[in-house]
Design goal:
It is built from two helices and 25 strands. The protein is mostly beta strands. The strands form six sheets. It has a five-stranded antiparallel β-sheet. Strands 3-4-5-6 form a four-stranded antiparallel β-sheet, with no helix packed on it. The longest helix is centred in the first third of the chain and has 6 residues. The chain is globular, with a radius of gyration of 19 Å. The N terminus is likely disordered.
């Protein structure tokens, strides 16, 4: 099932660590002398194996601690040895995907929510109310959300354990990311991060960047109760009610994993892991 790309591997530069100084023009900035940046994927690595496909802006971690990336019609596994296709090519467009808490891969294809069957083909679980929706994992289920600028209302839905599919709420602007918390969820829309409390159904803005900024992703470090969010060119952490700038040298899709923050930008063809965050962002 898994064929090597051009019969070669990407040699991952996991030991190639470099430092990038953050700008000090923002009100708060992390002292990044202790930060380390690991290059997991770069444009040069992809060029070396003549990989010309375009990844979608999603990154996930498998139960075997491999990184799962995808183009619009093919999944790939990225690990210590290289990058290999995962499964067969998919009919239709892969829009988003995420693993459940019990490691089941759920994939949005066009306007369908799918899983892989025993033959390795995508099998439809639900027809969704819209195309190109996003998906993220939660402790009690999966969250699906609209990302369409042309819709009057963009909804967040939950699929609870047992299969119940239900709407939570809607807002006028596209929803860019959703992250699960203990008794609430966080979501990013336009230039702000919001919280939604399940108990009282209250939506509250918790942080906002200047007008014209567009948030792309949210990641949560549940152990240290820290929130990270990003634009295309910046990564921030939440400290109290303020934004602490981690870097203004790069940004993209975020994933917190194994005490490090993954930053994936398919347009610029890089995947970077930031470590040492606990030493520079004090509670």
């Amino acid at each position: 099932m898994h064929n090597y790309i051009n019969k070669t591997f990407i040699t991952l530069c996991l030991t190639s660590i470099f430092s990038i100084g953050s700008s000090t023009t923002h009100p708060m900035s992390a002292n990044d002398d202790s930060l380390q940046y690991e290059i997991l994927l770069s444009s040069k690595m992809l060029d070396d194996i003549q990989f010309n496909e375009k990844f979608i802006p999603v990154v996930a971690i498998t139960s075997n601690r491999l990184i799962l990336l995808s183009t619009s019609d093919q999944f790939y596994l990225l690990g210590w040895g290289g990058i290999v296709p995962f499964g067969e090519k998919v009919t239709g467009n892969i829009c988003a995907y995420a693993f459940t808490t019990d490691s089941l891969l759920m994939t949005i294809r066009n306007n369908e929510l799918c899983t892989f069957d025993s033959l390795g083909n995508l099998s439809t679980l639900y027809k969704l109310p819209g195309k190109g929706m996003g998906i993220s994992a939660g402790k009690q289920g999966m969250f699906l959300y609209d990302r369409n600028k042309d819709q009057e209302k963009n909804m967040i839905y939950v699929i609870a354990k047992g299969g119940l599919f239900a709407p939570l709420f809607g807002i006028p602007a596209p929803i860019r990311a959703v992250a699960d918390m203990t008794n609430s969820i966080l979501f990013a829309s336009e230039n702000a991060v919001y919280s939604y409390k399940f108990e009282d159904k209250e939506i509250k803005s918790i942080i906002a960047l200047p007008e014209g900024s567009e948030l792309k992703s949210i990641a949560v470090d549940n152990t240290n109760k820290r929130i990270y969010f990003s634009t295309d060119s910046m990564v921030f952490a939440m400290k109290d009610s303020s934004a602490v700038l981690i870097t203004d040298k790069f940004g993209g899709e975020l994933k917190y994993f194994n005490d490090g923050l993954l930053v994936f930008n398919p347009e610029k063809k890089y995947l970077i892991r930031i470590i040492g965050l606990e030493q520079v962002i004090v509670p």
